[in-house]
């Protein structure tokens, strides 16, 4: 009897040892399937819950996938916080085109072009409508001249890539579970959705930080020496990207304004390096139809006026209005 009981107990334990991991794997697979179907970042992959957008509280790196694929988007703004003040609603008023803002703070050319490629794939002019305009904000990170490009913070390249397996694998974590729960709250109305054009008023964040924001305006440190060898890696990346954009799309490259104290002194190695960088982007513009450069990255009355800036990198709303007006004039002219 004891031998028989011992044998049956061992068999039961063996079954339990098999059942437990199989059940865990099945539950994990079910959880992953639910996350994929909920589509927390609104990528349009596999989802049965389309058209709800993403939570307003999501970081900018996680919202551009949703904003960039909307079929009724006419134009887009890409860059970092130095382009973020441009308001799609005001550009809509001036052009009658639906703009979206894909600005992401603390990003550089690598991250911004990853989003730009996602945008271009979803507005290729073949399967889906082509963009009428693409505005790219170029700050000094686009003129890094040592053949490298810095990436200030981690970036979810899996969210904007072509590899579906990488995308699904990256969803298998608690962060995506929490994102899925928040997406369900958006669907139910329990949590606000991000503004459909992606705009977030940067001035509200800067004003909340008080006097500390403008402390660097008092620093008069002008660069005089070149920072590299004239090897602009971002220029190569942009030249490889622009063929993805339909020829009918107006591409506006905006050298965003910095406070004059943040710019190199004239007739120095540093200023010549900036000029060399601008010339390289000018060549891209010259070789592609419907490509225009707007240059505010220079020392003039606008950038020398301290009242126009929050800090050395971020201009105030009146300058954003000026840039918006210039962009609207360019794209309206290009499309007649």
Summarize it:
This protein is an alpha/beta fold.
Explain this structure.
With 336 residues, the chain is an alpha/beta fold. It has a single domain (60-161, 197-334), classed as SGNH hydrolase (Rossmann fold), CATH 3.40.50. 43% of the residues lie in helices and 7% in strands. It has helices at 2-38, 64-68, 88-95, 109-121, 157-160, 164-170, 174-188, 202-208, 233-241, 269-287, 301-304, 317-334; strands spanning 75-78, 99-101, 133-138, 250-255, 291-295. Strands 2-1-3-4-5 form a five-stranded parallel sheet, with helices on both faces. Helix 3 runs parallel beside helix 12 (317-334) and helix 4 packs parallel to helix 9. The longest helix has 37 residues, at 2-38. It is globular. The chain starts with a helix and ends with a helix. The mean pLDDT is 88.
Write the layout of secondary structure elements.
Layout: H1 2-38, H2 64-68, E1 75-78, H3 88-95, E2 99-101, H4 109-121, E3 133-138, H5 157-160, H6 164-170, H7 174-188, H8 202-208, H9 233-241, E4 250-255, H10 269-287, E5 291-295, H11 301-304, H12 317-334
Parallel strand pairs: 1-2, 1-3, 3-4, 4-5
By CATH, the architecture is named 3-Layer(aba) Sandwich
- The end-to-end distance, rounded to whole angstroms, is 95 Å
How many strands appear in the DSSP assignment? 5
Gyration radius, to the nearest Å?
25 Å
Features of the shown structure:
336 residues, alpha/beta, Rossmann fold, five-stranded parallel beta sheet, 12 helices, 5 strands, 7% strand, globular
